[in-house]
Amino acid sequence: MNRKRLLLFLFILISLSLMTYQSNRPPLLPLKSLNSALNVFYDIKISVQEFINAPLRRMLLREEENRRLRTELSKLLKEQQAWQEAFRENQRLRAFLAVKEKEQRYVTAARVIARGTDQWSNTLILDKGLTDGIKKDMVAITDKGLVGKISDVSPSYAYLLLLTDINFSAAARLQESRTEGVLSGTGFRTCQLKYIPYEEELKQGAVIVTSGLDTLFPEGIPLGYISKVSKRESGIFQYIEVIPFVDNTKIEVVAIIRRA
To answer: Half-sphere exposure (CA, 13 Å, Cβ side) for 237?
Structure first.
């Protein structure tokens, strides 16, 4: 009997001790621990994403800045081209104003609107014609020299035969020696100065001008300069190649003057 009481006493004592121990320990919070772990994982994830995305954002910002700079550069280039074109147009107008003031035979200025389609023909089509005072055989010049002559004309348009055309010829002379000859077109970039005697001493770069003896072209209009001289063993004349002062590929506007 005493033994049973002793065991019951021990059981009660152990139970009270366990209850006291549990009351002194902090409560177990498994959900709170799990939430803390998830928060740490989320922070790590954000840090990794930031590490990966930061260079990409910088690259996108640089690309956007580059696009903006390219747009501004393109705008500036267009403005520069427009300014340069206006400057060149101003120079052309000044040159033609000088021609108009200097040339008493001045009729009008005409713009080139088309070129001849025949590969052997060197012709230009002008935007003015009979109604603007242009007539056949009138002369076309620029501030650099002779361009050609009017070969045909309609009320609104005119056809300009260039001095490089194979059908073109003009009485000419050497500006320095005053030796007379005839300048003819070859159908290409150059012309040929004909009928210069074999014994005439010539040099490259010598200037050729109109002589006026053909009563078509006024005297003293610059034609070109000698680029090649060949004295052939047979024949009485030299072969003389002339490069015109006016480049046919760059003609935009010409001044029309009356013939001599």
So the answer is: 12
- Collapse the DSSP code of 52 into the 3-class scheme (helix H, G, I; strand E, B; otherwise coil) and give the result: helix
Instruction: Give bridge partners of residue 150 from the DSSP assignment.
Output: 160
76-97 burial code (b ≥16 CB/10 A, e <16) = eeeeeeeeeeeeeeeeeeeebe
* Bigger pLDDT: 144 vs 40: 144
Residues 192/239, Cβ–Cβ less than 8 Å:
yes
**Which residues are bridge partners to 255 per DSSP?**
109, 141
For residue 221, count CB atoms less than 10 angstroms from its CB and return exposed for 0-12, middle for 13-18, buried for 19 or more.
Answer: buried
Q: For the domain with range 106-257, which CATH number is right: 1.10.260.40, 3.30.1490.100, 2.40.50.320, 2.40.10.340?
A: 2.40.10.340
- DSSP reduced 3-state for 33: helix
Over residues 230-248, the mean pLDDT reads: 86
Residue whose C-alpha is closest to residue 204's, from 238, 156, 170, 163? 238
Instruction: Look at residue 148 and tell me whether its pLDDT is greater than 80.
Output: yes
CA torsion sign for 219, 160, 101, 245 is negative
Within 10 angstroms of residue 196's Cβ, the number of other Cβ atoms is 23
Assess whether pLDDT exceeds 60 at residue 112. yes
Separation CA 140–CA 217 (nearest Å) = 10
Looking at residue 37, its amino acid is: A
